[in-house]
Fold this sequence. Notes:
It is built from 5 helices and 3 strands. By secondary structure, the chain is mainly α. The protein has one domain: Arc Repressor Mutant, subunit A (Orthogonal Bundle). A 3-stranded antiparallel sheet has the order 1-3-2. Helix 2 packs antiparallel against helix 3. The longest helix is centred in the first third of the chain and has 18 residues.
Amino acid sequence: MNTETLGATEEDIASILRLRRARAEMFGAELFGDLAWDILLQLFAARLGRRKVRLSDLQIVAPKTTVARWAAVLEERGLISCHLDRLNSKELWIELSASGAARMSALFRSLRPARQ
């Protein structure tokens, strides 16, 4: 995967996530309720790093039941895909859908300064 076509690197996304966590620690998480965005960022970073993500991996951003509710909304909107683990039917794998990945890439490409 080319950074030019994706618009970001895994480290770019990791920096955003670190900033968001530091912001929550400094000012209080209750001021910033952006769980859907956190999930999309985590999944985009995982895609850039070619890593797989379990639903339980996202408990760092919120309790599992809350993440599960938002994952259902994001899946309903076609932004992510969820798959049960073949070996452990209690484990759910999640990833950006093709549409979700394209939208995240387009968003980050739009943030890059225009080349002259």
